[in-house]
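In the design runs reported in the main text, the only information available to the sequence generator was the tokenized backbone. The following block is the verbatim input for one such run; it is reproduced so that readers can re-run the procedure and compare outputs position by position.
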């Protein structure tokens, strides 16, 4: 019984080191992670998709807000370049809030609330300003944090409550 109690304590303490809610952050990593959405906003608003591409791993999986699954860095860059020549050519991005879940020294998850205005529907109709949430899975390779997986969604207006 004593052995199993010690074993249980050991397992629980071991697992706590992998908790996404761990408050033990490497300050340099945390600053680097928080700078990623700032870079994204700057690159977006300058419509510089080549620079945006420097944030992506070669094997990135990027799910757009429209549900398109872009597999790989080159495809993601090409798709964003095309859209920044058309529907996003006058768009302005704003980062509203960033939350970091530091999983371990080489893995983190970011949730980014964003706003955008000045973009267009594919038929050329101006869109109303909108907001959404990005989920980014980022990995640290050779000292640099890069996006491995991206998922983007619009926040829809709540439906009227049923009475």
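Verbatim output:
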């Amino acid at each position: 019984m004593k052995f199993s109690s010690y074993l249980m304590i050991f397992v629980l303490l071991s697992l706590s080191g992998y908790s996404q809610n761990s408050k033990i952050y490497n300050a340099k990593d945390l600053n680097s992670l928080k700078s990623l959405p700032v870079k994204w906003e700057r690159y977006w608003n300058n419509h510089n998709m080549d620079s945006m591409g420097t944030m992506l791993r070669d094997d990135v999986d990027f799910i757009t807000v429209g549900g398109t699954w872009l597999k790989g860095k080159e495809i993601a860059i090409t798709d964003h370049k095309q859209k920044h020549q058309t529907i996003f050519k006058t768009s302005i991005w704003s980062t509203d809030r960033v939350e970091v879940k530091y999983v371990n020294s080489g893995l983190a998850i970011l949730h980014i609330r964003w706003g955008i205005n000045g973009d267009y529907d594919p038929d050329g109709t101006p869109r109303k300003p909108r907001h959404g949430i990005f989920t980014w899975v980022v990995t640290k390779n050779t000292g640099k944090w890069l996006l491995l997986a991206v998922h983007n969604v619009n926040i829809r207006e709540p439906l009227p409550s049923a009475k």
